[in-house]
């Protein structure tokens, strides 16, 4: 299976929006083209594609004031999970952050995703920084992970 990981251009906003709307089922988040276009103002999208089909995404949202970035919308389509696509997306985003000489990267996940994210986080030297109890709704915590980038 030849999956390519590429940096995405703003012109591909509609394709990213469609992928997220179809695959990201959490808290009624809106992923319209307007939201995606705005995310390009301070962020960089990477996609995993099989041919022309998006099978995974990640957004590296850069906060220049703090010289850090936040990982957002890391998602792999259900039929393509557990074959390393998430790891490749994360690795690509982290390498980009290092090239930009950012000092730190953070990411959040909900209780339901914590097991797999915990595994990825350990592999990439992320540490659990905090837990927001009942953040979205009762019994749904948010875990905050971070990693300082080595120069």
Descriptors:
7-stranded mixed sheet, alpha+beta, 4 helices, 151 residues, Aminopeptidase
Characterization of the model:
- By secondary structure, the chain is of the alpha+beta class.
- 28% of the residues lie in helices and 40% in strands.
- The protein has one domain (3-148): Aminopeptidase (3-Layer(aba) Sandwich), CATH 3.40.630.30.
- Strands 1-2-3-4-5-7-6 form a seven-stranded mixed beta sheet, sandwiched between helices.
- Strand 6 and strand 7 form a beta hairpin.
- Helix 1 packs across helix 2 (33-39).
- The longest helix is centred in the middle third of the chain and has 15 residues, at 85-99.
- 25% of the residues are buried.
- The mean pLDDT is 90.
The total number of structural domains is: 1
Q: Could you describe the largest sheet, including whether it forms a barrel?
A: 7 strands, mixed
Unreliably modeled segments: none
Helical residue percent? Answer: 25-40%
Return the CATH topology.
Aminopeptidase
Percentage of β-strand residues: 35-45%
Number of DSSP helices? 4
End-to-end Cα distance: 33 Å
Mass-distribution shape: globular
| Major β-sheet strand ordering | 1-2-3-4-5-7-6
* Tally of strands: 7
What is the CATH architecture assignment? 3-Layer(aba) Sandwich
CATH superfamily placement = Gcn5-related N-acetyltransferase (GNAT)
CATH class: Alpha Beta
Question: Could you tell me the radius of gyration in angstroms?
Answer: 15 Å
- Mean of pLDDT: 90
Judged by helices, strands and strand pairing, the structural class is alpha+beta
Element order, helices and strands? Answer: EHHEEEHEHEE
């Amino acid at each position: 299976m030849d999956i390519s990981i590429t940096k995405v251009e703003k012109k591909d906003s509609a394709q990213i929006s469609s992928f997220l709307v179809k695959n990201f089922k959490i808290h009624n988040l809106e992923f319209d083209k307007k939201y995606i276009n705005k995310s390009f103002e301070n962020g960089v999208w990477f996609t995993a594609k099989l041919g022309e089909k998006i099978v995974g995404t990640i957004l590296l949202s850069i906060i220049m004031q703090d010289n850090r970035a936040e990982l957002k919308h890391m998602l792999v389509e259900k039929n393509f999970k557990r074959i390393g696509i998430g790891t490749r997306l994360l690795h690509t985003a982290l390498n980009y952050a290092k090239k930009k000489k950012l000092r730190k990267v953070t990411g959040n996940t909900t209780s339901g995703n914590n097991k797999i994210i915990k595994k990825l986080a350990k592999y990439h030297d992320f540490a659990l920084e905090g837990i927001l109890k009942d953040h979205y709704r009762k019994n749904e915590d948010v875990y905050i992970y971070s990693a300082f980038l080595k120069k």
